[in-house]
Specification:
It holds the Pfam family SBP_bac_5. It is found in: Periplasm. Its main location: periplasm. By secondary structure, the chain is an alpha+beta fold. It has three domains: 3-39 and 187-275 and 504-525, 3-Layer(aba) Sandwich (D-Maltodextrin-Binding Protein, domain 2); 66-171, Dipeptide-binding Protein, domain 1 (Alpha-Beta Complex), CATH 3.90.76.10; 280-499, Dipeptide-binding Protein, Domain 3 (Dipeptide-binding Protein, domain 3, Roll). 28% of the residues lie in helices and 19% in strands. The chain has 16 helices and 21 strands. The strands form five sheets. Strands 8-9-10-1-11-19-12 form a seven-stranded mixed sheet. Strand 15, helix 13 and strand 16 form a beta-alpha-beta unit. The model is unreliable at 1-26 (pLDDT under 50).
Length: 526
């Protein structure tokens, strides 16, 4: 760490914190949780955007039909249970009694059906569900039914993938348009009038929420809100965020910058923990609809030069506990991870050979706009390494640094880079989301309907369909291996390594549920 930075941090630059909001005098300090998220909440719609910030926000204000427990198994959340017909073509779901939206209206089956339909258009398992469903109907206020063309064993798994239940009037918004109404069904209410993108967001406990009578387990179980108010303070500068934590101006920093961890570990009243046991897969996304990355030969040439160690060292500061390599298409350590074709990443790197492959690919010197988020230090480091690698390969790279919110907006453009489009950017995807073909959004080959970058791959899509029909996990793993081999040929994205994130909080906080994301229920302040 830079010596000057250590000195500044140690002196607790509280003067820089003048913009932090404090609770109203009538509120007890132990009833307010002040939190610094990983980045800006630029858009609060978890369907329109796939950002983890929006997902974390959504988990506070909207509940889910099913949620994963600490063993990653789907458990009933809003539903009392479900019934399946003998031919497995009809699923009937019954909601728990007493569920209310934040405006006091009861949660109805019609709300669930509308929420499922909107969510399903943007998520891989949801898209599969839409393809297999004959109809989804509300039977009455508490029961709804899904009739299928063929059995779909992953129904409840699908609903755990960020399928949040909104009022029907909101859920009827087109999935490709942003919502403007944030009435929720979860343990906290979003205080929209206090939301200032780039500055803050605030939430209040929903007194009429009915938690399940079970201990919390990851995203499942009882969601008991112990704080009257949760304040998200957007602090882009990592040193300022760390100083705020040291001085007690904030209670929790979701992802402290890696080079500040030694100072935070030695700070009185601060705990640094690695609650993330699954990690995230870091990746370089590329735009397959525009030159030069519409050329698979060029993509393979770049892949031959990728050294995952360089990316992980930069992103984690070399802390061995915070990364794992090699990392393929699927999350290491989970059932679908495979060694198939991994020699393209693990064989000795030869930059001169890779430069020759670039020249042979037909690359014509096209400008490459590589976007980098200035407010996500680890991801920014990944982008800087990617830029350096491409330049060493002789590519014409334009490194464009913006805040994450701006990057997320720009990545939706399919225009050429000189007309507001883009060519590449680095990001991370949570390990559970890219653990298998069912929910692996970046691995889809469905072109314009797919993830940002929009690769088209009939082979990947066909293998994905086969994976759903596989009779057991052994057969699924064999298909996943084939998918990885195809991915290394067609390169829908570049895997850069597996990252585990640390978090830091005041010792006064107890009951934080271990997870790869911040969970705000069950937490208390001593």
């Amino acid at each position: 760490m830079n010596a000057t930075r250590r000195t500044i941090l140690a002196s607790s630059a509280v003067a820089a914190l003048g913009g932090l909001r404090r609770p109203a005098l009538a509120q007890s300090a132990d009833r307010v949780l002040r939190f610094v998220p990983e980045g800006n909440l630029a858009n609060p719609d978890p369907v329109w955007t796939t950002t983890t910030v929006a997902r974390n926000h959504a988990a506070m204000i909207w509940d889910m039909l099913y949620a994963r427990d600490a063993s990653f198994r789907p458990q009933p959340q809003m539903v009392q249970g479900h019934e399946i017909s003998d031919d497995r073509l009809r699923w009937r779901f019954t909601l728990r009694e007493g569920l209310l939206f934040h405006d006091g209206e009861p949660v109805r089956a019609a709300d669930c059906v509308a929420s499922i339909k909107r969510w399903a258009r943007r998520r891989p398992l949801g898209q599969t569900l839409l393809e297999l469903a004959n109809e989804m109907t509300a039977m009455d206020d508490r029961r709804f039914e899904i009739r299928l063309k063929k059995p779909f064993a992953l129904m409840t798994n699908a609903f755990t993938d960020s399928c949040f239940v909104m009022p029907e009037r909101i859920a009827k918004t087109d999935a490709y348009q942003q919502i403007g109404d944030y009435v929720g069904s979860g343990p906290f209410r979003f205080l929209r009038d206090e939301w200032v993108s780039g500055s803050r967001a605030a939430y209040a406990r929903f007194d009429r929420y009915q938690p399940r009578q079970e201990p919390p387990s990851f995203l499942a179980g009882g969601k008991v809100a112990n704080f009257d108010r949760v304040e998200w303070q957007i602090i882009p500068d990592p040193g300022t965020a760390a100083s705020a934590l040291q001085s007690g101006e904030v209670d929790w920093v979701q992802q402290p910058q890696v080079d500040l961890l030694p100072v935070l570990r030695s700070s009185p009243g601060v705990t640094v923990a690695v609650n993330d046991k699954v990690g995230a897969v870091a990746m370089l996304a590329v735009n397959h609809t525009q030159p030069p990355f519409d050329n698979p030969k060029l993509l393979r040439a770049i892949l031959s030069a990728v050294d995952q160690s360089d990316f992980m060292q930069a992103a984690t500061g070399g802390e061995a506990s915070l990364f794992h390599i090699p990392c393929g298409i699927f999350t290491p350590g989970l059932p679908m991870a495979t060694d198939a074709g991994m020699e393209v990443l693990t064989s000795p790197r030869d930059i001169e050979r890779s430069r020759k492959l670039v020249a042979e690919s037909g690359y014509k010197g096209e400008r490459i706009v590589l976007m980098s988020p200035s407010d996500y230090p680890a991801t920014q480091s990944l982008a800087q390494v990617a830029t350096d690698l491409m330049k060493r390969l002789g590519l014409n790279v334009d490194y464009v640094s913006t805040d994450w919110g701006t990057l997320v907006q720009r990545r939706t453009s399919k225009e050429p880079s000189d007309k507001g489009g883009w060519n590449a950017y680095c990001t991370t995807y949570e390990g559970l989301t890219v653990a298998d073909p069912a929910t692996h959004i970046p691995l889809r080959g469905n072109g314009p309907a797919g993830w940002f970058g929009w690769p088209t791959s009939p082979r990947l899509e066909a293998l994905r369909d086969r994976w759903f029909d596989a009779p057991d996990e052994e057969a699924q793993h064999a298909i996943a291996s084939d998918m990885q081999r195809v991915a290394f040929e067609e390169v829908p994205f570049f895997p850069l390594g597996q990252i585990f994130t640390s978090t830091a909080f005041r010792d006064t906080l107890t009951g934080i549920v271990p997870a790869s994301m911040p969970i705000f229920w069950n937490v208390r302040k001593a």
